[in-house]
Structure formats: structure tokens, C-alpha cells
Specification:
Length: 476
């Protein structure tokens, strides 16, 4: 349930007899309209709370839920839908790029025609590609003898391969467990069921041990992209989301936060107990403080954050306007006019990256000042315009650095992959589990952004066959 509304609206006393001019009358009417808008907003909030209270009462009485039907006729106005260009539609595109071939087979041909002739000429050469997988168990039994020297009595153990020491599963299977867990989003039961289909004898605890062991092996690669990746980056996106850890000893649930830093070629994740400027500062480090920083306007990204050159996300900023939802038709019209102005500004700002002339820079600055400097008479809208005007330097930083993105959607997309895992698998159970999520997600997403084969890169890093430097080959 939402928090109950405690708002109290103080309506001013208006003496109609003292109104002596048209301007004073207009001022009184504006005040009355704003008061009426506040009363309507409060009324609808209270109606929503009444419905939720009734639903809670029904739940406590164990009564069946009232069915909820959403109307498909009207779509809610959001900042994302607002900045989408009109007239542009998505079309399915053909698959591009060649398909890698693992084996070549020559098809059988007719040797004799139905007329009896054996002479043919080639009309056209064709190729048909069938894509497939070879999935099979590969259990290996190593045999060896423990030998003793007849002369001195010294005993020698069989020389099994080094990678088998203390392990019951080979390295490809261990790499596959990490891939399925964090890239394929498999749960422990699903992983266990999949492996048992191939007669792999494994327990839930052994799956956890494999993931923790792989996490330790990925630590050097994680540290490399945290240092070299940030150092080579021109700018960094940032975002965060909530996560939980259940203490097995006390059954206590701890609230935590997963932070993201990255760009087109980099993904870094870190779980902390708090979401504040201090936690972000530690995650950024001294190298990150000097980078251009793209984020929303949440309080942790404020004055205490040591990254001084900040570009605020325009999608989030426009979202403050779409959240207003006025009840009066007059105010809805005024809000729509401002939203249309921001739509035009947003698309001109996107085009500035490819056409960053001094003239276009001056036009965008003037357009920003014109939009935020207007007075609409709708108090909530005028207040939001004032707040936007106060963030002028942080919203217009892209004019100085044209390559800088003006929205933070890539960070939200990166975090969304973790959110899906969180919904499927639930909370972590230990600090080792937290570190495992950080390292696996960072390595897998960075490898994908670098255009690398995800499994081969993960397996190579886990076995030491590939250096961590492949994760920072490209940078932005």
C-alpha cells in the first residue's frame, strides 16, 4: 500500500470587494485554479488510498480479490515514449554476418539421368547450412598405480593432471555452470536438473562451490577492468538497484544495493550496504573521479560526489514533467505544450552529437533558457521549470563534450539483467555470493560488449589461457 496522504491545503481568504482591476481579478482566478487543482489531486490520492485500504481489509478477511482490468485504449504518458520520434516504426531486419562452419559435407549427386545419359553440366552451385550443437557427456576415468621403490622403499603416487587435484568436475563443465547461472539465468534447481539429464552426479552444494571457486579465479580479471577499464574510459554511466542478502546464521534479511559503472565497452558491478555518495566515491576511485559522469539526479549523485563533471539524464528530467498529471483541462494543455517543447529540444540535443557547431550550441542554450524561463500559471509546472533551470550546467554539459550521451538508458539496461536474476533466484546467502555476482556479471557483460565469444572468454579466463587485457581492448 502507498503511504497515507497527510497533506493539508491552506486556502487563502479572498475579499472580492477589494478587487479593483482586471489584473487583480486574473491573479485571483489563477490562485483559485491552482487551489482547485491541489484539491482535485488530494481527492484522487485519497480515493486511491480508500481502494487500497478496502483491498487490504478483504485480504485480511481472506476474501477473493476483485479482478483488475486495464484498458488498452489509452497508454500512459512516459518520458521514454515522449522522446521517441514520431513516424518511426520498428521493422524486422535480416540476419547479417556469416555463419561459422565447423564441418564440410559434399551432398550426393545423381550419376545417371532418367533418359539413360551420364553426361551433365553444372548449372548452379548451392550451399545449405544446418546449424546445430554437439551436447554429450565427457566423463573421464584416470587410472594410475601407487608405486614403491624396491631398493629404498620410497612411495610414488600416480601423476594425475594438475587440474584434477581436489576436483570432481573438469574445467569446461565448471565454466558452463557459471555461464548458465549468470548469462543463462539458471536457478540452482534448473542447473542441477540439466546436469543430471547427462548423468552428472552433482549436488546443490557442489554447484555453489563451483560458482564460488570460479569467482575467486575471476578476481584478477575483475580488478583489471576496474582499474584499466575505468582508466581508459572517456565517460561513465552510473545507476543502482536494490538487492538483499539472507544471513544463514540469523535468518536476518539485509538490504543492499548493486551499483553499475560502465559505457559502450565496459560493465562493472559492486554490491554495497548503502546507496550514498561515499559508496559511489569508493567504487569510482581516484581514476573515476576525473571522468565525465552520466547519471540521474538522485541525491547520491549530488554535491558530495567527487566526480565534478556530471551530465544528468534527460529521460529522467523529462520524467519529472510526465509525473505531474494535472486534473484540470487547462493545466493539462499547458503541460502538453511544455512537453512538446522538451520533445523538440531533446531531438535537437541528440542531433548535436553529429553537428556540434557554435551556432547549434547557442541555439540549444537559448531554447533551454526560453523553455525554463516561461511562466504558465500552473504552480506545479512552474516549480518544476524552476528546478530544471537550477540544474542548467549539469543538463547542458554535453554542449561542451558532444560525444557525451544525454540519457542513462544503457546503465538501466545493464542493471535490468541483474534484476531478472534477482527475481528468478532471490537473495544471496553470503558475502561470497555477493562477490560472485559482481565478478561474473562484470566479466560476462564486458566480454559481450567487447564483441568476444562469451563462453570462450569466460573459460579462457578461468583456466588462465586468456589474459584479462582482452576485456579492455576497446574503450570509449
Amino acid at each position: 500500500m502507498t503511504k497515507q496522504t497527510d497533506a493539508v491545503i491552506n486556502l487563502p481568504d479572498i475579499d472580492i470587494d477589494k478587487i479593483s482591476s482586471l489584473d487583480e481579478a486574473k491573479q485571483v482566478i489563477r490562485q483559485l485554479l491552482n487551489n482547485f487543482e491541489q484539491l482535485l489531486t488530494l481527492y484522487y490520492q485519497q480515493q486511491k488510498e480508500i481502494i487500497e485500504l478496502k483491498q487490504e481489509i478483504s485480504r485480511l478477511k481472506k476474501q477473493p480479490k476483485t479482478p483488475q482490468f486495464s484498458s488498452p485504449k489509452t497508454q500512459p504518458l512516459t518520458a521514454t515514449s515522449l522522446v521517441k520520434e514520431k513516424g518511426k516504426h520498428w521493422h524486422k531486419s535480416t540476419k547479417k554476418g556469416s555463419i561459422p562452419i565447423d564441418q564440410e559435407i559434399t551432398a550426393s549427386e545423381v550419376e545417371q539421368c532418367s533418359c539413360g545419359s551420364t553426361e551433365f553440366k553444372t548449372v548452379k552451385t548451392t550451399t545449405k547450412i544446418m546449424q546445430g550443437l554437439l551436447i554429450q557427456r565427457n566423463n573421464t576415468a584416470y587410472h594410475g598405480r601407487r608405486k614403491q621403490c624396491v631398493k629404498c622403499g620410497k612411495i610414488y603416487n600416480p601423476q594425475f593432471p594438475k587440474e584434477t587435484k581436489g576436483l570432481s568436475f573438469d574445467s569446461p563443465l565448471q565454466s558452463l555452470v557459471s555461464l548458465f547461472k549468470f548469462h543463462g539465468r539458471y536457478t540452482h534447481p534448473l542447473l542441477h536438473s540439466f546436469l543430471r539429464m547427462f548423468d552428472i552426479k552433482i549436488s546443490y552444494g557442489e554447484i555453489t562451490e563451483i560458482l564460488h571457486r570460479n569467482s575467486g579465479k575471476l578476481h584478477p580479471a575483475y580488478q583489471h577492468i576496474r582499474i584499466a577499464g575505468i582508466q581508459k574510459s572517456t565517460y561513465l554511466h552510473s545507476d543502482a538497484t536494490g538487492t538483499k542478502r539472507k544471513q544463514l546464521a540469523t535468518n536476518q534479511m539485509l538490504n543492499q544495493h548493486l551499483h553499475f559503472l560502465g559505457n559502450k565497452f565496459l560493465s562493472l558491478f559492486k554490491i554495497t550496504r548503502k546507496y550514498n555518495a561515499q559508496a559511489i566515491n569508493q567504487f569510482l576511485g581516484r581514476r573515476g573521479w576525473r571522468k565525465l559522469y552520466v547519471s540521474d539526479d538522485a541525491s547520491p549523485n549530488g554535491q558530495k560526489l567527487k566526480a565534478k563533471r556530471k551530465q544528468l539524464c534527460w529521460i529522467h528530467e523529462i520524467g519529472h514533467y510526465t509525473d505531474l498529471s494535472p486534473r484540470l483541462k487547462l493545466y493539462r494543455k499547458k503541460l502538453q505544450q511544455v512537453l512538446d517543447q522538451w520533445r523538440g529540444f531533446y531531438h535537437k540535443a541528440k542531433a548535436y552529437k553529429d553537428n556540434h557547431t557554435q551556432e547549434s550550441k547557442n541555439q540549444l542554450r537559448k531554447l533551454f533558457d526560453d523553455i525554463t524561463g516561461q511562466t504558465t500559471g500552473y504552480e506545479a509546472l512552474d516549480h518544476q521549470l524552476l528546478l530544471t533551470r537550477r540544474k542548467r550546467d549539469r543538463l547542458l554539459l554535453f554542449l561542451k563534450y558532444p560525444f557525451l550521451p544525454i540519457q542513462n538508458n544503457p546503465a538501466e539496461s545493464a542493471i535490468r539483467k541483474f534484476v531478472i536474476i534477482r527475481k528468478i533466484s532471490g537473495e544471496t546467502k553470503s558475502q561470497k555470493g555477493d562477490r560472485s555476482i559482481e565478478r561474473h556479471l562484470s566479466i560476462l557483460q564486458t566480454a559481450q560488449k567487447q564483441g568476444l565469444d562469451v563462453f570462450q572468454t569466460l573459460h579462457g579466463l578461468l583456466t588462465g589461457q586468456i589474459p584479462p587485457t582482452v576485456l579492455t581492448a576497446q574503450s570509449e
